């Protein structure tokens, strides 16, 4: 669950300024590991009033922030935000999903229904849990994104070729494209059953789920030990491309998996939120926003 809204005041390498938005769990998803920091200079602040300032600037096209195309103004009715590689979607207090960014496959055109939760994948797809408990997906979904029928769902997590969800009985179900060796890593077929979960987070070919007792189980593609969570008690988890992180009951962040860019090496601070990206991790401490990469580990912006 996303608790905060991040407003970004940025300037590109030519000195042009603009503003954008991301979620309090700071999902700065990137489409490429090669995104250069000198292209943009952003300062992020926390807005606990849940207002979103849209900009008319286009998508940067290099895996950076995705901006509203053609819509400007401020909204103060936003309760959560989910960001992918090419677009961003926000959920309003009335349950409306509002998206901006690219819309080549309808990824920024969600249906006009009421949602209780939404998520955006790294490709051209988004999914949400309707107020009736159904899972509805939009964008370049294909038949493999067709959700199981029923109206008993409460949570959803989207990846580029599969989806995992929790039903109202806390059971886990995953589905998607498992055709060919490239897509089939067991992220769908090996999903655990017969247990109760409170959260699921889909990664690149693998997924992790949080149990009622605070322990974590992962399955799928075991890239760089991404399937071996530590023996900790967590209150939330987040899966990146090849690493995952969790917020423990002691409010510390513990990560596992690939650490080539420092994304699995969090500072020894107390946190309230954590989010894993492709090759980075961001978290909100009790006072500041931290970004973890190979070249940067520093507070950004104002206090919460």
Mean pLDDT: 74
Spell out the helices and strands N to C.
Answer: EEEEEEEEEEEEEEHEEEEEEEEEE
Q: Number of domains in the coordinates?
A: 3
Q: For the record, what CATH class of the largest domain applies? A: Mainly Beta
Q: Please name the CATH topology of the largest domain.
A: Methylamine Dehydrogenase, Chain H
How far the N terminus sits from the C terminus, by CA atoms, comes to 17 Å
Q: Any idea what the shape is?
A: globular
**Helix content bin:** under 10%
Order of neighbouring strands in the sheet with most strands: 21-22-23-24
Q: What amount of the residues lies in strands?
A: 35-45%
Q: Which class of secondary structure composition applies to the elements?
A: mainly beta
At the fourth level of CATH, the homologous superfamily of the largest domain is Regulator of chromosome condensation 1/beta-lactamase-inhibitor protein II
- CATH architecture identity of the largest domain: 7 Propeller
Total strand segments? 24
Q: Give me the oligomer status.
A: single chain
Largest sheet, in brief, is: 4 strands, antiparallel
Number of helices: 1
Low-pLDDT segments:
1-72, 294-304
The radius of gyration computed from the alpha-carbon positions, rounded to a whole number of angstroms, is 18 Å
